[in-house]
Specification:
- With 381 residues, the chain is α/β, with parallel strands linked by helices.
- The chain folds into four domains: 46 residues; 55 residues, OB fold (Dihydrolipoamide Acetyltransferase, E2P) (Beta Barrel); 182 residues, Rossmann fold (3-Layer(aba) Sandwich); 83 residues, Helicase, Ruva Protein, domain 3 (Orthogonal Bundle).
- It is built from eleven helices and eleven strands.
- The strands form two sheets. It has a six-stranded mixed β-sheet, sandwiched between helices.
- A hairpin with a 5-residue loop joins strand 4 and strand 5.
- Helix 2 packs across helix 3, helix 6 runs parallel beside helix 7 and helix 8 packs across helix 10.
- The longest helix is centred in the N-terminal third of the chain and has 43 residues.
- The radius of gyration is 34 Å and the shape is elongated.
- The N and C termini lie far apart (116 Å).
Amino acid sequence: MTTQDKDKLDKVIYSYTTESNLLEEENQVLRDTVSRLDQELRRIKAPALMVCEVISVLSKEQSIIRIPNGNKFLCCVASDCELLSSGDQVLVEQKNLNVVKKIELEHKFNVEKFVIVEKPTETWEMVGGLNNEVREIQEVIELPLTKPELFKKIGIKPPKGILLHGPPGTGKTLLAKAVAQSTHSTFIQVVGSELVQKFIGEGAKLIKEIFELARRKAPSIIFIDELDALAATRMEVGTSGEREVNRTFMQLLAEIDGFKPLDNVKIIGATNRKDVLDAAIIRPGRLDRLIHVCLPNEDARLEILKIHTKGVRLSKDVNLKILVRDMENFSGAEIRAVVTEGGYFAIRANRSSINKNDLRQAIEKVRRDEELEEEHMHMFG
């Protein structure tokens, strides 16, 4: 064999070897792909596992679990499963409900979608004509949150919460926000009527989550507006809706009773109908400090009007002391509405300041609107 022939043979052998290696690599890639697809197919075909809660652990092999619809079952626990305890979240087979493994779920509060959680900006300077009410709230809510050592030293337990009651628009929400701001607390606002109407079947669970949320965001203030919708006098017999309200109310009482003294969570309830409240909510140890927020007198109305006209351009003919005499029985919200309506009258007249006639017309308009609303309530309420 000549040298030339030998070189040709070497080239042919090298070519076959290279091609063989490439084919082997392609075969390996295909085998890996088939194996991966096979695993994916088995995973997709595998039955889904159900998330359940452990209620009680009887032994390493048996536990009582609660499935999502609320039913409870005695089930076997897989031998390689971690040790369980009450309250754990576990994965179970849907067919026989055997516990497969324990899981850690990050708990997200669905309740945050339904309540207002904020850091208020309202200050005590924005509260007018409520000096006595402000002093009481500072003693009952602000002092225990800012100086708890005073109560520990004396050996007394501050109230867990207060009830603000009085006509609508008198500043109950403003008071609650102001004390939250002064104590740098998280403000969690719940509207009792919405809780009752929207969440039939879920009310008690949401109450529990609201208080858990408050503890996590402490120091915090839970403000329950329209408390009468949730805490009205209980009836022995009623519709399923009324029974659900009672269950929600009982959960509220249980959460209030569960608070330790000097906790960094306080409760403020507000209502226009104190007369319909169940006595259980205002007994000692619960919302036992009752603060009546009444309609402002003439001096208080002047103080409120000065707050709402601060920064507002007024004509020289405006005498606030005279104007407040025409606002008898006006609430703080209505006094604020007078200033706003007065501004609209000035804008319609293409003026850059509010004069006394604008404010007088505004007073009449607000009074007329209030009378129409009362007539409407009498007709359809």
